[in-house]
Amino acid sequence: MAYGSVIGVLLSYVLLYKYFAIFGAIFLAGIIVPIPASELLMAVGAFAGQGYMNFWLALAAGLAGNVLGDLVDFFLARRYGTAVLRKFRLDKRKFIGALEAEVRRDAPFMIFSTRIAGALGPAVNVFSGISGVSFKKFLFYDATGNLVDIGGLLLIGYAVGSYWESFSDVVGIIVAITVVAIVMFILWRISRRIIRRGSAAGDEAA
Amino acid sequence: METLKRNKGNYIKAALAVLAAVLIVLFILLFRQYSDLRRERLLNEQAVWLSFASRRAPLPPTEAAIIQPWMTFDYVNRVFALPRAYLQTALNVADPRYPQIPLYRYAESQHLDPWAFTDEVRNSVKIYQPTIQ
């Protein structure tokens, strides 16, 4: 790994400033900044396994950072989301409307599952804010999803120790598989709804 | 209206087919990575158990190759159970930030090549002989 790479610089900060650095990096990743959070958390798990850090404090720092980052997206979208959509005339786009409806209809699944599929997280945070998902519901599913995600990555790092780098590619592929599977599931649900609506319209016409 | 819905349904079906193909490619990549890990003997029951059981034990000097430029002196000291002053003395480190400074940052401050300096650290770790009490 190149020392000047994003992950190299982040890891050196984690070794220097420990939990503050974990909180800061995961907070930025939670908002939308493209930080290799999975790799970082696996490394932190390995540091905890080697006794260089406390596992529970690392988990708490990561969880707090991610939840706060997600809440920033959620509240910004709730406050300014509709106005921004209107300004760029995105509110009339059917695709945006369908996504908004999907998030509103099945908020628990959408929020929980996209915590594990990191790349989709910020988008769902924004749509949750715009579509008026309640704060309590968002917080609950966001925190539980992040607990599973962050806890899982830390545990993998904890288990594989110094070899975490060799396993980070595998974890990256598993995360990509999860993202694709979730997108497929959402599309399948939308298509099922279209078919159902079509058959209901057919029945009415008959 | 009915045609519009049918078109939308077709687009979704096409997207699902593309995503299914992507999923298959990802599973092939996963299998290849898994095979690589098994070949490197990093993924078998014994290796995982040994790694799990001995995780808190210091790494032996023979594992010095894992040292990277982003690591701090403090971290290297900890994982290889080196005395705090060992690397400082062996590498003539006079920086007051020692041991809380990454290897690459120290190397840059001394106008050294970070990778060459990391190799020096690795060599110093490799030749470390713990004093038997």
Could you characterize the architecture of this molecule?
The complex is a heterodimer of chains A (206) and B (133). Chain A is elongated. Chain A is built from eight helices and no strands. Chain A has helices at 6-31, 37-49, 55-87, 94-105, 107-116, 121-130, 135-160, 164-205. With 133 residues, chain B is mainly alpha-helical. Chain B folds into two domains: 2-53; 61-126, no CATH class. In chain B, 59% of the residues lie in helices and 0% in strands. The chains are: A mainly alpha (206), B mainly alpha (133).
Pick out its properties:
heterodimer; A: 206 residues; mainly alpha; 8 helices; 0% strand; B: 133 residues; 2 domains; 6 helices; 59% helix; elongated
Summarize the structure.
Chain A is mostly helical and 206 residues long.
The interface involving the most residues is between: A-B, 41 and 48 residues
**Helix-strand pattern of chain B:** HHHHHH
Order of helices and strands of chain A: HHHHHHHH
- Span between N and C termini of chain A? 66 Å
Shape of chain B: elongated
Strand content of chain A: under 5%
Proportion in helices of chain A: over 70%
Oligomerization state of this entry? heterodimer
Number of helices of chain B: 6
Element layout with pairings:
The complex is a heterodimer of chains A (about 210) and B (about 130).
Chain A: H1 6-31, H2 37-49, H3 55-87, H4 94-105, H5 107-116, H6 121-130, H7 135-160, H8 164-205
Chain B: H1 2-39, H2 45-53, H3 73-79, H4 86-90, H5 103-109, H6 114-126
Helix pairs in contact in B: 5-6
